[in-house]
Specification:
alpha/beta, single chain, 102 residues, globular, 5 strands, 25% strand, 5-stranded mixed beta sheet
Length: 102
């Protein structure tokens, strides 16, 4: 299952209307490491993680990038109630991501 890509405005709207947990993957389209990280997230999602996952191109998300101080890509931001709890830059394995998102 592909992770839904959102634009910055749509992501802001979802974040503010959500009170639960969510995962946001910041990426760039030509980044090979980002593609591998996204694939691992898809595997974690397929195993039954109930946390909704979204992705956003960091080049088109300047407000979020600056507000959350995203230093590089790939970056998985785990939110709870719209507040960033954790930023994960090293996508170690699908199992690690599954445990992070449970």
């Amino acid at each position: 299952m592909a992770i839904k890509e959102l634009e910055e405005a749509a992501l802001f709207e979802r974040i503010q209307s959500s009170c639960g947990k969510a995962g946001i993957l910041f990426f760039t389209p030509l980044c090979g490491t980002c593609m591998v990280g996204e694939r691992m997230l898809e595997i974690a999602e397929a195993t039954g993680v109930s946390t909704p996952l979204y992705k956003i191109n960091i080049n088109y998300a300047p407000k979020l990038r600056d507000q959350w101080q995203i230093a590089s890509v790939p970056c998985l931001v785990v939110l709870d109630g719209g507040v960033p709890l954790r930023k994960e830059y090293a996508m170690q394995s699908a199992q690690h991501l599954y445990a992070l998102l449970r």
